[in-house]
Design goal:
With 120 residues, the chain is mainly α. 67% of the residues lie in helices and 8% in strands.
Length: 120
């Protein structure tokens, strides 16, 4: 049973990796960048809140933010009450990119169904 769980994890990892390579080719974003845009769809977040939402370290979060910011998909603003606080929000081009990603069928359900059928 333990070997089967390890094989299942390997298959899940391989499919996520393949999905990410296709996603990056099609949209010019890594999964973390895409998930960042999803997280900012309807709200402003601090870098700490983004790190929590994406499950990343602060260092990795900073890299992801810089990357999407350089592409013009995210902007930063100072907090109104506390000028030391930085908030990030999605820009119009970022929202357009997010909508482009959301319009296409990503077959996540099909990938999960295939994995489940192979191990059940």
């Amino acid at each position: 049973m333990k070997a089967m769980n390890l094989c299942l994890l390997r298959d899940i990892y391989c499919r996520i990796r393949n999905f990410e390579m296709t996603f990056q080719r099609d949209y010019g974003l890594c999964l973390n960048e895409g998930m960042l845009l999803c997280s900012l769809k309807s709200q402003k977040l601090t870098s700490g809140e983004i790190a929590d939402a994406l499950g990343l370290t602060c260092s990795n979060t900073s890299k992801v933010i810089k990357s999407v910011e350089s592409k013009g998909y995210v902007k930063r603003t100072l907090g109104k009450g506390d000028k030391r606080q930085m908030y990030f929000s999605i820009t119009k081009p970022g929202l357009e990119k997010l909508n482009e990603m959301m319009e296409e069928e990503m077959n996540v359900a099909l990938i999960l169904k295939d994995i489940r059928e192979n191990y059940m």
